[in-house]
Design brief:
By secondary structure, the protein is an alpha+beta fold. It has a single domain, classed as OB fold (Dihydrolipoamide Acetyltransferase, E2P), CATH 2.40.50. The strands form two sheets. Strands 3-4-5-7-6 form a five-stranded mixed beta barrel. The protein has a two-stranded antiparallel ribbon with strand order 1-2. A hairpin with a 4-residue loop joins strand 1 and strand 2.
């Protein structure tokens, strides 16, 4: 496996386990996340208009249980079952050269222990065909779904996705 791909895969895996932080580490994590957000604000972001729509979902974090919750407006609920297109930065969830399952983010991923954005800035993607990792933005098209994975902070999914050239 290429070192760059392994690093990205490990970063994505670490991101998904953020729910394992204890309440005692709360203020340290808050400070780390705040510093991470400030650093990310200076990096490239996807300018895809779909991110503006998804940002209308209000999310919050219960710092006792370390679970997220989401309130989806009707505009987003209306997208369920429809074909959508979105571009963003890929975070692989499989440690292979090519994969079908990954997260796409509005923000450039920078840290293996901090999410690349808020829960309304990431989408879980399931492709119909394998794709290779790319460090630039990619565009995918597929069926939009709402999910409720409070522990991982995943609320959007695109299934049967295809990469758009």
């Amino acid at each position: 496996m290429k070192p760059k791909l392994l690093t990205i895969s490990l970063c994505a895996f670490a991101f998904l386990w953020l729910g394992g932080f204890s309440q005692e580490n709360s203020s340290a994590l808050d400070a780390e996340l705040s510093a991470e957000r400030k650093a990310q604000d200076n990096l490239p972001k996807s300018k895809d208009p779909m991110w503006n729509v998804l940002a209308k979902t209000k999310t919050s974090l219960d710092k006792v249980k370390w679970h997220y919750s989401a309130e989806h407006p009707e505009e987003i609920k209306a997208l369920v079952g429809k074909e959508v297109t979105i571009s963003g930065f890929m975070l692989p969830l499989e440690s292979t050269e090519k994969f079908k399952h990954f997260i796409i983010s509005k923000r450039t991923p920078t840290c293996g222990f901090c999410p690349p954005g808020e829960p309304n800035e990431i989408v879980e993607v399931f492709m119909t065909e394998e794709v290779s990792w790319d460090d630039d933005t990619i565009k995918v098209k597929g069926t939009f779904e709402l999910v409720n994975n409070a522990q991982l902070g995943l609320f959007f999914k695109i299934s049967n996705a295809q990469k758009i050239q």
